[in-house]
Amino acid sequence: AVLQIILNHIDHQMPLDESVSNPRIHYENGLLSIEPGYDEAACHALLDEFPEQQQWKRKNLFFGGAHSVILKTNGMLEGSGDERRGGVWRRLFN
């Protein structure tokens, strides 16, 4: 989960909240598990390499829950709570 969030935010320049809430994938013991909303064309392209795929019906903590906070260049904090873990983000100070 953490790596996918970092890649989404830095490499794909997604806003932090979108990076955290974006659908995730997980590979273990020959099975590729996929959250709903993951790009359908990407899933199809992965079939040759990962023929065993499980499509989940909703987002789940199985894919990890990662609350995230970054320090922006202007000195402000930005955060995002992961819905998979019931998270919220609140700034309590400036």
From TrEMBL:
One of its GO terms (molecular function) is leukotriene C4 gamma-glutamyl transferase activity. SUPFAM superfamilies: N-terminal nucleophile aminohydrolases (Ntn hydrolases). Pfam families: G_glu_transpept. Its EC number is 2.3.2.2. Transmembrane segments: none annotated. Keywords: Acyltransferase, Transferase. This is Gamma-glutamyltransferase. It comes from Candidatus Thiodiazotropha taylori.
